[in-house]
Every structure is written in C-alpha cells, then in structure tokens.
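Example (one chain per record):
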Amino acid sequence: MSTKSLFLGILVIVGALLASSMIYIVPEYQKAVVLRFGKLQPDYPQTGVNFKYPFADDVRKFDGRILTLDAQPENYFTVQNKRLVVDSYAKWRIADVGLYYSKTGGSEIVAGSRLAVRISDGLRNEFGQRTLHEVVSGERDELMASLIETINQTVRDQLGIDVIDIRVKRIDLPDEVREPVYRRMAADREKEAREYRSKGKEQAEIIEADADRQKTVLEAEAYRDSELIRGEGDAKATAIYAAAYNKDPEFYSFVRSLNAYQSTFNNKGDIMLIDPESDFFRYLKDPQGNTQ
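Predicted structure:
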C-alpha cells in the first residue's frame, strides 16, 4: 500500500469519526438538551437529525412520553377528622426540558420524588376540606381536577413538567377501625333493609286491600248487570209467551203439554203416580185436547 493511499484512508476514518461526533438524532419519543463545556444551551434540539460541536457539546436525552408515578399509600384526614389510607398515582411528562434538567438533573427518580411530595400535600389539603362521603362519592373527579390545576401552577415553573392526570386507586380505612366501621355500616344497611321491607309490606297491604275492594265492586256491578239483563230477558220471554198465548191459546197449551211430557218421561227409571183422569194426559187421550 502506498503512502498516499494510507493517508487517504486515515483521512476517511478521521472524517467519519468527526461526522459521527457532529451528527446525532433525537427520536420522537425523546427530548434533549445540549451542554456546551458543561453549560446548558438555550436552544433545545428538535426531533430528527441535529448537529453539535465535537468534543465541546454533550447531548442529554430524556423520555418525552407520558410517565407514571405510583405513589406509596399515605394517611390523610378528612374535614371530620376521619383518617383514611389513600393509594394514588399520577401521569406526567416533560414540558420544559431545559428547566427539567436544571431542577432535577434529568433524573426521573428525583423528578418523581419531588412531584410525589407536592401531590401528597395537595391531596392532604383537598381531603382536609371534604367529608368522607364527598371523598368516596362523585365529587372525587372534582377533587382530582382541582388538585391537577393547583399542582400544575407550581410544577411547570419549578420542575418543568406537566401533570396530566392524578387518580386515586384505593381508599381504605385504617386497620384498627376498619372492622368496627364495617360492622356499623352493616347494621345501618340492615336497618335500612328493615325499613324498606316494612314500607313494602305496608304498600302490599294497601294494594291488596284496594284489589279486594275493586274485586267486590266489580262482582257487585256484574251481578247487578246480570240481574238486570236476566230481568229484561224474563220480561221479554213473558211478553213473547203472552203474545203467543193470545194468538192461539190452544196451541200454546199443546206445546206446554209436550214440553211437560218430554221433561217427565226423559228418564226411563222414573215412576209417577197420577190420576188417569188428570189433565196431564189430556193430549194423550185426545189430540184435540178435549176433556170429555
């Protein structure tokens, strides 16, 4: 290998090393700062390809995604001086990367511990203004929204981060009072259950009495209507019979006798003692119905 080729090879290697020390890439999920001779630069690198001065600039990269802070359960007191054990977590991300690096050194652990202190103080203040019922009921969302707004007013300027969300995973009573409270709650629920059963029984009796009354009224009205209809039917039947009798009394008498014969001799086992000269046999003796 000639001296010229060796020299060119060295130049290429030096150029490649120099280029690699000047070019760096910031991914979309990261944020970065540049330290020039250890001093933080005000211009922060953008996402993508960036350039730096070799040997003078030092690039520090941090996770720019939403991070989770899982706090340790702590004791808080409500406005009624009720002690609660609260387990919570927070979602946060870097808002000002330069301020974040200046205040925390770029350490997630340091940032998380400082944020945890502020969240703990905020929760203590919010719980101290509310009752136990308000804490565990629908006002919890309002409590969290107020806490997020209050904390963001300070951590953005002090730590360079944004708190996205704060949630309470669990609210427990202390171990020494949990069982008595649960027993009292069970007694209260049993009392409410008895009251509901009593009211339900009362309502059932009222409904049953009203149903019986309506039944009696309906039966009485139905009997009244049936008697009216039966009376009207009997009246019409009587009028028809009377009209038929007036038109032909002899035929009417004959038909009545036939009906009587049919009813009397319907059962072969019946025995009847009647005078042969009785009018009952009038039409059997004489089709004209003459008695002589």
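Caption: The helical segments are 3-22, 97-104, 108-128, 132-136, 140-158, 175-247, 249-264, 282-285.
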